[in-house]
Each structure stands twice: as structure tokens, then as C-alpha cells.
# Entry
Amino acid sequence: MLLDLIVGYDCNLACDYCTISPAMRARALSAGRIAAALMEGRRDGFERLSITGGEPTIRPDLIGIIRRARELGFADIKLQTNGLLLGAGDNLNRLVEAGVTRFHVSIHTHEPAAYDAMVARAGAWPHMVAGLRALLERGLPTVADVILTCATLPRLDAAVRWLHGIGVRAIHLWFVSLTDHNRTNIASMPRMTEATPIMREAFAFGRAHAMDIRSLHVPRCLLGEDHGHAWDPAAEGVRVVSPDATFELRTSKLTGQRHVPACAGCAFEQSCPGLRDDYLARYGDAEIADARGHPRSRVGLPVI
# Structure
């Protein structure tokens, strides 16, 4: 089981697909609430911890949070970050010495100009790359998180090859969400059937080069023979502690929760969490119906 601690929504970037609004950036967990959540988590049997945001590395007390988690007995401590501060000074050493055991770095895309445009910060790309390279040079467990949007999909194959070239061996593909701050940015979301042919190329490259490439939020039926690459973190038991609420990841609006009529009888029905509401609102269930050879329904007609 995993305790997912969202320490705050503030960030040193402003990614164009991000669901965090300017108003949300002012909200963060207090030191007391974090300490209580860590103790409650250990009491309830959680042995793995994920620290995320926003951007957790801009929080002044991050090292103390990590040390406290290690003292309490968390065996695995993951840091989710944009990586910009990992290559600066002694930051990485301090994080590892405090207790971080693995890192997830959001790279968005491998092209400097495109990256800087996405994160709305000129000159950010070299800092992200420096952080990523620092992790790889030390041989630390590292996963590159890549967001799948209409803008990043055309560059996905090249991004995967670039990541392999610098030594990354694990990639998670996150399908963009139209929720909260990104809810009206409908141009950012492709149809899944437009994304899956490009994703298949990435999966094939990964298999050929000993890379672990996983897909999040795309139903297994749409991945076809690549369904083994689908990953549902919520199925492993994840408790999320955020500045707004504490909840199970499986109930989050960022996690698929809805099975449509065409899902009935699917071989993956019990293991697939279904579609997210934001996707159904944008595109409906026609793709699932077509993939299953079922009639289309009126579930989730576009309302955005």
C-alpha cells in the first residue's frame, strides 16, 4: 500500500496542461498535518510513501519531512518532481541522505523550446535535464513521466528514444485530464484512438531495449495486444492526503471509475477501472463500443 502525500499545490512552473489553478497554489498541508498523516499511515500499515505536489522541492521543510518518514519506518520513499532543483548544489545528496529511495521526473517533452513553452518558463529545460542526468549518473531508481497531449504525442517516439539514449529505463505515460484548471483546455486532449498507434511504437521500442514503459488512464481494450503495459496504481491501494481532503486514489476524478455499456463481458472488466468522466464528457464511449464490437450508446456525450 502507498501513502500519497501532496504537500502543497505551489510550483515553480506553470505547465499549460496542469489541473492546478492559481487559487489552489496557495493551499498546502501544514507541518502538523503532514506529521499526523505520516503517523496515521504507518499505524495503518503503509510502508511506501510518495511525496508530490505541486512541486515538493520548493518546500523549505522537505528534508525534515523525508527524515521523519524514514524514522517512522517507511521502507520506500518516492519523490515526484519536475527535477529543476535536483542538479543544483548539494540538493540531490541531501534528499538521498534524508531517505528518498526513488525519483519520478516529469519531462513533458525532450525538445528545449517546446518544453520551455509548455512550462511557461524560459531556460527551464537545461535545469530539468541537469536534474535528470544527476539521478542517472548516480544510478538512482528513476522514472520519467511523460504527459500525453495533442502537443506531445507527435514527439513521443523521439522523446522515448532520447530518454533511452541518456540512460532512462522506465517511463510512465500519463493521459492528460480535463479537470479543474485544465477543464476548458479541450484542445489539449486527443482521442485515445489517435494516441494508441503512437503509444504502440513506444511500447515496441521499449520492449526491444529493456525499458519498462507503462500507460495510465487508457483502457486495456484500446491498447489491444499492448494491454500488458496498462497500469492502474489505485489497484495497489493508495491513500491520498492533499491540502483539501484525504481519500482513496480509486475515488479520485483523475482515476478512471466508469464502465460504459460496451464494457460488459470484457475480459478486462474486473481489472480495468474504466474511463474518467472528463474523457467521457469530451468524446463519449464510441471508441470503447467500436473496440468491443458493440453498438454505440449515448453515455458521456460531449458537454464541455
Residues 300-304 have pLDDT under 50 and may be disordered. DSSP finds ten helices and nine strands in the chain.
